[in-house]
Give the backbone structure.
Amino acid sequence: MTLTGLAAAEGVFVCAQPNGIREYRNTGDTRGCRKLDMEPLSSIPGPASGSAQTAGSNQQAKASLGDTAFPRIDSQIQKRRDQDRMQILMDEVRSEETKLADLKREYQNGEPERQGGERNYAKYQERVAMMKEELMRTEKNIEALKREIGNLK
């Protein structure tokens, strides 16, 4: 009998502590405990990992799926989809480059103009740091988009 089977055979007991907290145990050897009526546990053993039968059934499942697991797409339709994807990526690159140019113009090599609400120098530095982060993020986006376009070609 397994450990869980042994615990289930003995039962589950609920014990009331002097401070009123309930405690659940698998033995009822103390006062103030009562056995709970529970349905018996059922356990179904799983297949042993690495067994020959499991490996064989996995190979059979893969073989039965074969080419039917993924639908085939006509080559003309796929070319059209790839062209659409390329166009979308190119549009995204153009918009990110426009955004980058605007950010660089506003950033002015790390010395943007101070705004009226930035009398405190720390606020100004915080805004400059956020602008720098946005610049770096936009540059990384452009790099990633260009890399994706390169993968399509």
Observations:
- The chain has two domains: 7-36, 73-152.
- The chain has four helices and three strands.
